[in-house]
Amino acid sequence: MPTPPLPDDEYRRVIDAWRETGKSVHRGAGLLGMNCNTFASRLKIAKARGMYLPPIDPAVTAGMAALGMQSIPPGGWIKGQPDPETGLSYSFWFKTEQPGAANLMDDIRAAFEGMAPAPPVAPPSHHDADLLTVYPLADVHFGLMSWGRETGEAWDTNAASDRVREWVGRAVDASPASALAVILDCGDLTHADDQKNQTPTSKHSLDVDTRHFRTLEVTIAALAYAVEYALQKHARVVVRILPGNHNPAAYLAVMFALAERYRNEPRIEVQKIPGEFWVYQFGQCMLAAHHGHGAKPERMVQFLAADYAPMWGLTRHRFLWTGHMHHLKSADIGGVQWEQLRAVTARDAHAVSHAYTARAQLQAITLHRDRGEIMRVKVAACKRGDVL
Predict the structure, then answer these.
(1) Disulfide-capable partner of 26 in 113, 152, 222, 250 (CB 3.0 to 4.6 Å)?
(2) pTM for the predicted model, two decimal places
């Protein structure tokens, strides 16, 4: 026998609790002693039925009656009748809250509240405490679309996900069992920062293959796969997500989602540190990264020497990794080995039209705490399937 529908009063009770707790699903459910998922489900139904509209102001009701209006429009002007003595009339503009126009931050908060943490992963049977392996992901550009007939390689969000999963897997399999691993996103993890599909600063139009919602969903799932795959081999995994010029805000969604996913996993540290630089000390090794769009490498090296002087003085092997330009370049700069990493993504129409020829690549860089870099694993690109 089907479950009878709930009365409207029950949905209004959920709406009232949601408003009373500052539009929080988690706190609203707690106020009613209700499961978060049940509360969110009823809230969604109530919104779909238009029940969450605020009470109508008496002045609006009077204006509607004067104008013969039967329902509240999305917004507009109500003009009163002229005063018989003065001839003056009064008008005002109003706008009502509309179903489906939920605040973006409320949606993000509701999505993260009550998120189930990842199941535990068994630690490896052995590892080398003197080693650290960095897996830098430079310019993955999830969400980018490349038409094969134009660029020579068909590419989309699914292709990016497949590449990250496959390449990180190969790199982890071929690297030594270092005690510590770093999954390091060097910026531009997503191709677009929001649904506008433009670079935030220059407003250049971007070729994207899907909605921004799905891009974030696929990005987070692929990064989670990489983290958990590395956790099977390494005793601890540090995760750092850096902003790029394509995603100065969207990177936060990935960072906070992963932090929530692994909040109960002591072997994973998702660093929630503001700023565009990653700087880390491992024995006598100083490790740093930046997307590479804010300053030239020479200035970055000067910045590291000035702002991280104690770490600089305690280390002998110093490394700076950047991305942004999508092609390989390196130099020794004032005691720092700087390397501009190849991009993970395929080329898009913009790259081909500007005659860029760089190949995609992912590396795993293993360092000894006293001797510095001791080995690398490189996974290079080949074309994905036939040109379409």
Answers:
(1) 113
(2) 0.71
